[in-house]
């Protein structure tokens, strides 16, 4: 499927001349039939909307990469209905088992891939590891149960662009060419935390909805940070990622002429705010609220036509680590996908 440019995706529906290929949103039963037929279908999770396909069907997995225009060296997360399904795919060490009480939830574990896992090799991008997650979203788990097979599912957006947190955003991004199982807006608003559990070490590959410090305190484990120049072992490790069309200017105390403004906490009053070119992630300075609003507000400010978005400083503690990670990658110099290669520096 061709993915239209961002400018087209952001056009109001009234300006689009092509008719939808689907009667979106599709019903639950229709979504299951689509997935069983080896096609892709977008669905809600508690983190962001995912673009799902049968993880055991290589043609279906290829359709994910083609639809997103995603480089094949970038592995996918395999979503499971329960721990029993996850155990069939990945090898769980005692240390990995210690993390499973956080499931269902917004945590992905990168573990050794079982030789008889039955998932397509493309899911792991040729690696000997696989990322598995049991989503905390009930409808997502029911969808996997109804399919009877695990779902490979990255975020439901063209590769490198903002992750969608609502079905409407998915439909706009893909010009209504991707079927969408309707759901509520994602409650967390930011992707899962990805932890590698290899060689009796826990390494955070991507900060996410579950703050690292919270996991350490709750489960009494030590989590290391991924080193720079690490090879890509999980989604979200590309230097440039989660990016709007507009450029980003971080650590901005106030917007400059022509900029939109993404604030946090008390941002006062200025001309940009008066022109409705500003959004506040959380007037109360609440990081959970900020994470929930991050992609949605960036999406709205990007649609305003501003050439650049100034972003207020965000505290780095707790969920702030994940928020700042997404903003840093969104602000990074952008390369064409064909120019990117394994081994790109991770944050």
Automatic annotation (TrEMBL):
EC number(s) per entry: 2.7.7.87
Enzyme class, first EC level, given as a word: transferase
Pfam families given in the database record: Sua5_C, Sua5_yciO_yrdC
Keywords, ordered alphabetically: ATP-binding, Cytoplasm, Nucleotide-binding, Nucleotidyltransferase, Transferase, tRNA processing
Organism: hydrothermal vent metagenome
GO biological process, one term: regulation of translational fidelity
Cellular component terms (Gene Ontology): cytoplasm
Cited InterPro entries: DHBP_synth_RibB-like_a/b_dom (IPR017945), Sua5-like_dom (IPR006070), Sua5/YwlC_C (IPR038385), Sua5_C (IPR005145), T(6)A37_SUA5 (IPR010923), TC-AMP_synthase_SUA5 (IPR050156)
Keyword ATP-binding belongs to the record: yes
Record localization: Cytoplasm
Protein name: Threonylcarbamoyl-AMP synthase
């Amino acid at each position: 499927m061709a993915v239209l440019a961002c400018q087209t995706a952001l056009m109001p529906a009234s300006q689009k001349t092509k008719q939808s290929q689907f009667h979106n949103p599709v019903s639950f039963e229709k979504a299951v039939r689509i997935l069983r037929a080896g096609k892709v279908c977008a669905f809600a999770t508690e983190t962001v909307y995912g673009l799902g396909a049968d993880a055991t069907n290589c043609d279906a997995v290829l359709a994910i990469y083609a639809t997103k225009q995603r480089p094949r060296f970038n592995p996918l997360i395999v979503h499971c209905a329960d721990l029993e399904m996850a155990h069939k795919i990945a090898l769980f060490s005692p240390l990995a088992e210690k993390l499973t009480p956080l499931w269902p939830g917004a945590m992905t574990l990168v573990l050794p891939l079982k030789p008889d896992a039955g998932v397509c090799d493309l899911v792991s991008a040729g690696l000997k590891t696989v990322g598995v997650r049991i989503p905390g979203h009930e409808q997502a788990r029911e969808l996997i149960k109804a399919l009877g097979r695990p779902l490979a599912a990255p975020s439901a957006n063209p590769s490198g662009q903002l992750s969608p947190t609502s079905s409407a955003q998915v439909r706009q991004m893909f010009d209504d060419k991707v079927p969408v199982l309707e759901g509520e807006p994602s409650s967390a608003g930011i992707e899962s935390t990805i932890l590698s559990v290899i060689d009796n070490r826990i390494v955070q590959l991507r900060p996410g909805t579950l703050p690292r410090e919270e996991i350490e305190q709750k489960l009494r484990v030590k989590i290391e940070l991924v080193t720079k120049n690490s090879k890509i072992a999980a989604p979200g490790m590309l230097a440039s990622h989660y990016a709007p069309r507009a450029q980003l200017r971080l650590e901005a105390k106030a917007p400059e002429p022509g900029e939109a403004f993404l604030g946090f906490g008390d941002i006062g009053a200025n001309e940009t705010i008066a022109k409705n070119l500003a959004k506040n992630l959380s007037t109360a300075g609440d990081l959970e609220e900020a994470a929930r609003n991050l992609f949605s507000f960036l999406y709205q400010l990007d649609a305003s036509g501003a050439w650049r978005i100034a972003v207020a400083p965000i505290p780095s503690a707790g969920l702030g680590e994940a928020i700042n990670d997404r903003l840093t990658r969104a602000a990074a110099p952008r390369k064409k996908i064909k120019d990117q290669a394994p081994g790109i520096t991770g944050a």
